[in-house]
Amino acid sequence: MATWPPTLPSLSGTTAIVTGANTGIGLVAAQELARAGARVHLACRNATKAQAAMAAIQEAVPDANLAFLSLDLGSLAAVRAAAEAFLATEEPLHLLVNNAGLLGSGTTADGFESNLGVNHIGVFLFTTLLLPRLTDSAPSRIVNVASRAHTRTKGIDFDGARKPTPGGTGFEQYCQSKLANVLFTSELAARIEGTGVTTACLHPGVVATDIWRKVPGPFRWIVKLFMITVEEGALTTLHCATTNDLVHGGYYDKCKPVATSKQGADPELAKRLWAATEEWVATPAPS
């Protein structure tokens, strides 16, 4: 695995979007992409935190070329507005890093189970809305931050997609949402083959980030003792974002392509999830 700090190729003349870039892995990735010369849009839900993150990046990289993009993955209307706002800039898009996510409970603004709604459904819609611009800007790349947690579930609870998280920490639903990230990447890879757009997903490691913010305190404090730093966690994201030999549709861990779970490698499940998600994003939220 690479060591910190990473040595990235020049990204001068490229434009990137990093979701959830106000903290954790996303913040580190945005900073290093900017250091390499990319223009980076920080796509975040909280404008105040995003501005603080931009100031921190600017302090570390004085010539960083940054912009803020308002994005709330828990609302399909907000996702559509974010995509429309970026497309209206008429900028090219060479790199989309789908980093933002959560582990929690409840439902989204559209009535989806929170983990699936934010970590997969919102990401699916944002990516597919931006795909024409990525294609026009090719060669370009989509990097999806998944997790090894996808190996800890047996499948996707399609019937539970429109129901609140069934109690506890939501860890089972989080694992399902990370399986959805893997399946989405594999099906996306098949659909964009030959367009000049490549994609991969990754396990960043078990990282001490704000994704654990909704997990009960005592458990959160204990598990964080065994986690890696955000810099270490960003290495595989940055590798997938910049390597010349990316395995299209691959799943990476410690900067190397590795096998997914059996469910993650199921093409029929990937197709079923894609079709279901298309229906979900097209269906209005219940009144």
Description:
With 287 residues, this protein is an alpha/beta fold. It has one domain: Rossmann fold (3-Layer(aba) Sandwich). It contains 8 helices and 8 strands. Helix 3 runs parallel beside helix 4 (114-136) and helix 4 runs parallel beside helix 5 (171-191). The longest helix has 23 residues, at 114-136.
Count of helical regions: 8
Order of helices and strands: EHEHEHEHEHEHHEEH
Which structural class fits the helix and strand makeup?
alpha/beta
Q: Write the CATH fold name.
A: Rossmann fold
Question: Helical residue percent?
Answer: 40-55%
Largest sheet: 8 strands, mixed
Query: End-to-end span in angstroms?
Result: 49 Å
Provide the gyration radius in Å: 17 Å
Total discrete domains: 1
Strands of the widest sheet, in order across it, are 3-2-1-4-5-6-7-8
Shape: globular
Please state the second-level CATH architecture. 3-Layer(aba) Sandwich
